[in-house]
Amino acid sequence: MVGFMTKDLKSVLSFKNVSVSYKNHLALDNISIDFFEGSLTAVLGPNGGGKSTLLKAILGLVPLQKGEIQRFYPKLTDIAYLAQQTEVDRTFPLTVYDVVALGLSQAKGFFQEIDQKTDATIQKALEKVGLKDIAHRSLHMLSGGQFQRILFARTMLQDAKIILLDEPFAAVDRYTMEDLIKIVQGWTTEGRTVIIVSHDLEIVQSYFPQSLLLARSVIAYGATKQVLTLENLRQAKRSSGEWEVSNLENDKTMQFFKDDV
Amino acid sequence: MYEFFIEPFGTYPFLRRALIACIALSMGCAPVGVLLVLRRMSLMGDALSHSVLPGVALGYLFMGLSLPAMGIGGMFSGLIVALLASFISRKTVLKEDASFVGFYLIALALGAILVSTKGKNIDLMHILFGSILAVDKASLLLIAGITTISLFVMALIFRPLVLECFDPIFMRSIGGRGSLYHLIFMGLVVLNMVSAFQALGTLMALGMMMLPAITARFWAREIWSLYLVAILVAIVSGFLGLVFSYHYGWPSGPAIILTSGVLYLVTVVFGPYGSLRCRRT
């Protein structure tokens, strides 16, 4: 993925001097970057570095304190968002099919019946994530990996131009992760823009061409190889050390920082 | 057997009417309870159910023991408390549960004092513990009407309501107006509370919602079957509670709730899903 900064790329999301406050502290400090159409970008950095806040700001779920985010696709339906899995109740009495079908809520509204054509769309999504055989199983019975596959199928049905994923590989097995990454790569070849928050340096280095290293402000942004340098990681660690020392222990990226940087 | 369970209903019209009221109540309250449990709002429901008392008391002060007047009063005070409590939790440091508890205690105390300024103790007992055996035609129509409305509305907004319970963040991310559906649902909770209050009193009203709903959680794993089990449990407890109340002279409201409590305890131990005996969820 060369030519990342060339001028002929279309910017779909443009941050202009964006600052966001969250619970009385500055979560994002003066961010000015562009995300380009069809790009696949990993966002990483220490806990409290504003990774999730960045996604929420794009969605308009948190108010901007300063600056603006220009969106080439202004409609709400153009952005799909998959939050961290920990925020969902996995014993909720729904079936796999039900949850996936909810991905069509935006396109179809809440009140339409599921006709044959819609059903076919849902079945296709189920097949792509490898869950066709257990479509009518309840959520209770699924593993973390299977649950994440459901959410990917739901995201797929949203058919959005921009897809935001928050820690999608945190609770899944290796095998599922590889399947899910193939799906993500499929999205980018279809011209969709994907932004993924991830803790896992190894995954980022092996699969994602671009990275954004975020520690409240942008430490580095560009091709992954150039972003994930020792120097940059050190700088991220330094800026995070100022406010989040207590979080270091349960933060995978920062573990890496501690051992190796 | 026949004499014990069936004959009382054949002999006494007021028992028949009470049974019909119970069945109508069950069909409205139990599904609402199921969703309250899924939304993890059981405690909020509890607080809300007590907060209808001052309105009920005002209705009583002006109109005497008229169920429609007390019902409408109760509905207003319930809604006012719900709105005030969520206003306080949004604007101050208090979380929603704490601010609800504050208001419902005030409401409960205020209501009890209001009733006692005019009434006799026996009336206060009626209001706190219900008087299902005294349900007349007007109240029966009110209960049935509320049940019809709430079943209809819940069917209509089923999908957004379930989505808002299951994954509110996703709901927000698609611009799904989750708070609108939440508000409609809270309205239904208050309505059903009012209709249950007539039968079971302000202290017991929530029992008809919560006990069948949490019992159903051990028997079913889809929302439709949760609804069905909860409704059945509520109807059976209503029936048995009335029978016991008739034969042993127990107060009817507490008899109904206690029956459903026993069903719940048995289920906690022996239910097929996620119970003490059977851990598999």
From TrEMBL, chain B:
BP-aspect Gene Ontology terms: response to zinc ion; transmembrane transport
Pfam families reported for this sequence: ABC-3
Recorded family membership: Belongs to the ABC-3 integral membrane protein family.
GO cellular component: ATP-binding cassette (ABC) transporter complex
Membrane topology, from the record: Multi-pass membrane protein
Presence of keyword Transmembrane helix: yes
Protein localization: Cell membrane; Membrane
Transmembrane segments: 18-38, 69-88, 100-118, 138-158, 179-197, 227-249, 255-276
Native source species: Candidatus Paracaedimonas acanthamoebae
Keyword annotations of the record: Membrane, Transmembrane, Transmembrane helix, Transport
Annotated protein name in UniProt: Metal ABC transporter permease
